[in-house]
UniProtKB/TrEMBL annotation:
<feature type="region of interest" description="Disordered">
    <location>
        <begin position="77"/>
        <end position="101"/>
    </location>
</feature>
<protein>
    <submittedName>
        <fullName>Uncharacterized protein</fullName>
    </submittedName>
</protein>
<dbReference type="InterPro" id="IPR029068">
    <property type="entry name" value="Glyas_Bleomycin-R_OHBP_Dase"/>
</dbReference>
Length: 113
């Protein structure tokens, strides 16, 4: 399976407001905000950054999201599939894989039409 580069960076935070101000100071612009402590930022033509607030009892994670053309092809070889492509509540399909060092990567494909 070939991917088409980095689609997004997904960040979890304990403080949405502080993280949003931090990204704005670095030149990112808000594309949209939700009413539950999350939103999407972009700086130029690169990948978008999606930030989601989590409870203080959880450890914040950072995930790279790779762009996949479709859900028909599956990775092989040294790619461990953690979860198959599944529909998301925001209209895409996502799969999670693990690299040889144990890091998780998300693959994002267009939603089913």
């Amino acid at each position: 399976m070939k991917t088409e580069g980095i689609e997004a960076v997904f960040l979890e935070t304990h403080n949405w407001g502080k993280q949003a101000r931090f990204l704005r100071e670095l030149g990112f612009e808000v594309e949209f905000e939700t009413d539950h402590g999350s939103g999407q930022f972009r700086n130029g033509d690169g990948p978008y950054v999606f930030v989601a607030e989590i409870p203080p009892t959880s450890e914040p994670r950072t995930l790279l999201v790779l762009k996949a053309a479709d859900t028909a092809e599956r990775p092989g070889g040294d790619v461990e599939i953690v979860s198959e492509f599944e529909p998301t509540h925001y209209g895409t399909q996502e799969m999670t894989v693990r690299d040889p060092d144990g890091r998780l990567w998300n693959l994002q494909a267009p939603g089913e039409e």
